[in-house]
Amino acid sequence: MELTLTRPDDWHLHLRDGNLLAAVAPFSARHFGRAIVMPNLRPPVTTTAAAIAYRESILKVMPSGSQFDPLMTLYLTDTTSPNEIKLARESGVVYAVKLYPAGATTNSQDGVTDLFGKCLPVLQEMAEQNMPLLVHGEVTDPAVDIFDREKVFIETVLGPLVQKLPQLKVVMEHITTADAVKFIDSCSEGTVAATVTPQHLILNRNSLFQGGLQPHNYCLPVLKREIHRQAIVSAVTSGSNKYFLGTDSAPHEKWKKECSCGCAGIFNAPVAISLYAKIFEEANALDKLEAFTSFNGPDFYGLPRNTSKIKLIKEPWKVPECISFPFGEIVPMFAGQMLDWQTSS
Ligand code: DOR
Ligand code: ZN
Questions:
Q1: Is the dihedral of CA 119, 120, 126, 131 positive or negative?
Q2: Residue 280: helix, strand or coil by DSSP?
Q3: Fewer CB atoms inside 10 A, N or C side of the chain?
């Protein structure tokens, strides 16, 4: 069996920098035309000038002949100025601004402490400039149970934000719950959308503890109950144009995952397309796959759809146990397991 798809884009990707960037970028460039590149480096990408420099360093490590186009983002802080948004828009290379609530995840310590108190003028400028806000949708209050943090964020931040600034384009990133699906479905089309990762579509929270602690299935937002997984599978396979592909591929070296305080993040770039195909096939919705992977994202961002194609063939392959680089190793999602779908070049 074969499937031909318009070349997909990845609307949520961590490419890192330095050695790690050079090691992981080719895995995304192989399948995807474009990617929204997350700004949570150390230090974070908070200015247009830094985003331009980061883009150059990504292009430098691309395999020769690659057409991969990195779409840059800015990291929102309490002190981001409205003028920075104007510069971002004028640059032509910054496509969105990312909101990390301070302390929510990897390298979020410089994130926002009080969105409505500190960032309203910037958000107003973003609405004016038609610059989307990409949201890590979890509260950080340690008193809130980690499995409820997305739901509480929707109730206390995202809902009020959409009410206050109905013109602002918002992408709720890597949704994990039925609550998020309900919220996205209730919002107006073209203004609020969501990305969905392969891990949140294929795994539930049992995968964190299957036969022992599984650090390579640990990401944030953390995997949820099976009923939530089913709700997001239904949402993406329904044909709604509010949902699109965002892998949240987030590589960490093996030793940073397999230790006493492991990092959050799943390196899924080598398996993402294969897993999305599996999910849509199992839901009897392969006819809806291409809109999710290749149309809904660019349509939301107001960008042209890709014109080139990729071919998927149903032929079993084994995911490597580990990917070795001169400086270390990374364990991919589904390491050592068999998958059905692969891309043919
Ligand atoms: O699991 C995650 N890893 N979630 C995030 O939000 C950040 C990411 C990372 O950068 O490692
Ligand atoms: Zn992410």
A1: positive
A2: helix
A3: C
The answer, yes or no, to whether any atom of ligand 1 lies below 6 A from the CB of 216, is no
CB 167 within 8 A of CB 126: no
What is the SS3 assignment for 343?
strand
Over residues 54-94, the pLDDT tens digits come to 999 999 999 889 999 999 999 999 999 999 999 999 999 99
Nearest ligand 1 atom to alpha carbon 136: 6
- The pLDDT assigned to 345 comes to 62
Low-confidence ranges of the chain (pLDDT < 50): none
Q: Which of 344, 339, 332 is nearest to 23 (CA)?
A: 332
Evaluate: CB of 191 within 6 angstroms of ligand 1: no
Instruction: Indicate if 200 belongs to the active site.
Output: no
**Does the CB atom of residue 106 touch ligand 1 within 6 A?**
yes
Q: Are 42 and 54 in contact (CB under 8 A)?
A: no
Residue 106's pLDDT is: 83
What domains can be seen in the chain, in order of their start residue?
A: 2-344 (3.20.20.140)
